[in-house]
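We emphasize that the prediction below concerns an isolated chain of 496 residues; any contacts that depend on oligomerization or on bound cofactors are therefore not represented. The input was used exactly as deposited, without trimming of termini.
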Amino acid sequence: MNATPQSTSAPAAPAGLRGRIDAYFRVTARGSNFAREIRGGLVTFFAMAYIIVLNPLIIGTAPDANGDELGIARVAATTALVGGVISILMGVVSRYPFAVAAGMGINVIVAYTLAPEMTWADAMGLVVLEGIVLMVLVLTGFRNAVFRAVPAGLKSAIAVGVGMFLAFVGFVNAGFIRRVPDAAGSTVPVQLGSGHLDGWPILVFVLGLALTIALIVRKVKGAMLIGMVAATAAAIAVEAFAKVGPSVGADGEPNPTGWSLTVPTLPSSPGDVVAVPDFGLVGQFNLFGSFANIGVIAVVLLIFTLLLADFFDTMGTMVGVAEQGKMLDSDGNLDNSREVLVVDAVGTMAGGAASASVNTVFAESSAGVAEGARTGIAPIVTGLLFLVATLFAPLVEIVPFEAATPVLIIVGFMMMTQVTKIDFSDLSLGVPAFITIATMPFTYSIANGIGFGFIAYALIKAVQGRPREVHPLMWIVSAAFLVFFALEPLKALFAG
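Result of the prediction step, given as a token string:
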């Protein structure tokens, strides 16, 4: 069954070269057009562009076992390079609107779990090895079989959970939600701003969100892109007038009312606009060095950690974005999903080979889908902009989180609407669905939400005396997640 129903009233595809491109990407067949695809690619890029700044702050500043760091500038260059190349490859091969970049959450595992135990070259070698394992799982059909073994209701729950996760990320990155400073002794871990909304950046975020909502309600084409551009212009004006500055000053002193990451200031000279990228990290990985440093058992456990996080992070994102764009069939499956998973595995290997960390399908692709993107043309546009960003990094850094994150809130709402497809009256499905949805934002991990949801589903079916209703692969995956969540005790056991 095709993922996208055909419409008898759909307009005829254009002729000539344009027609061949249309036919290959199925632009008209999916009810889209070239303008929507280009606009969707632009929106996706601006929703994802923060990774060019944020990934280097995580990967580039973390010391390895020898105390060495990769460096912010070099990681920024390879982050944009790999994201650009793999996004274009995803568009051409899969023909779906899934853009690719360094995965948030997984990069934290690489920086703070792998690197402290080995050199950066060894850590990135493990990432490449994990990508190779992923590719084997895809080519043998195992990864796709697991995807199809998941009940449709749980797939909808994954989509909703991803939406909640995106909204939470948006609120946190904008500073609208913040960690309570003394959370250890507080009754709540997070709060509204600094206890209340204060400062110009929050105002920019709120106005950007309000404008975007108004444009969407009025069904204005390009609503989210217009909202981002308008909020960025407002942010630049605010910074020029009020001199807000970053959330952490050059002296290390906190500035609670500052911009959360990027300070929106225009470049002061042409030399600040164009910079020759440093791709010196490309190829700086050691495929088997970790085995000699920490031993085979420790390496296997670390690869297993990366594998599960990457495997189900991709699956959750793919389901969530495809569900939003109505690209799944009646069983909740994506037609030709193997191509998506192959490119995703290539992205993991490329990310390790370039020291950019695991590259995977980005949930922010849903921003482009919300703008009407339905084909691989959108990630090609996004990828080209990533490649341009390797040269024009200062221009990318103009857009602050406070101007870009309203899109994530809107997309979170759109994905939340899938909750109506979940039958909560069936407790064997409703309870795991709820756990999946709640755990993703609360643990800041898509993979954790999927894992706990799967375990709950298998457990409830067993308690009800209906274990045969659980697909064998669901049992295998649930058991794997149990091991995943018990990794630290297992490591301690083997170490002893």
